[in-house]
Structure prediction request, 150 residues.
Amino acid sequence: MTSSRLNDVQCSIERSLHVVGERWSLLILREAFRGATRFEQFKAALGVSSDILTARLSTLVEYGVLERRPYREPGRRERSEYVLTERGQDLQLVLGALGQWGDRHLPRVQGPSIELRSPTGQLVRLCYLDESDREVSPAEVQAHRTPAYR
Prediction:
């Protein structure tokens, strides 16, 4: 689906899933947040086929989640590296929420393999905050239709 046709999709979750809803796309993003930028780094970390990796990277670039930048190692041909854009950086919350959900509902016996911490070293978690910065339980959050709803 093209970017212009995505505008016709009313549900923001459905639009988002069109861009990042493939399993490998989220894992590519996880590796990008861990510092991977090059095709071979993603391939080695994920064990994904080259065809699938190429397709997923292309989609993430097309929708502005990753930016393709040329680089050349001495004596080698020019290649591309993939760098998170601001749009891509915003997906860190999505991955954090998925990890938090997995740790809570699909825990490993050994415990979590990753902990999210603040710059002061304190554990952090994702939550809803209202406009007054008061934490709101997910059970209390309600979806309300806006004038844009058809």
About this structure: The chain has seven helices and four strands. The first strand starts at residue 66 and ends at 71. The radius of gyration is 18 Å. The chain has a mean pLDDT of 94.
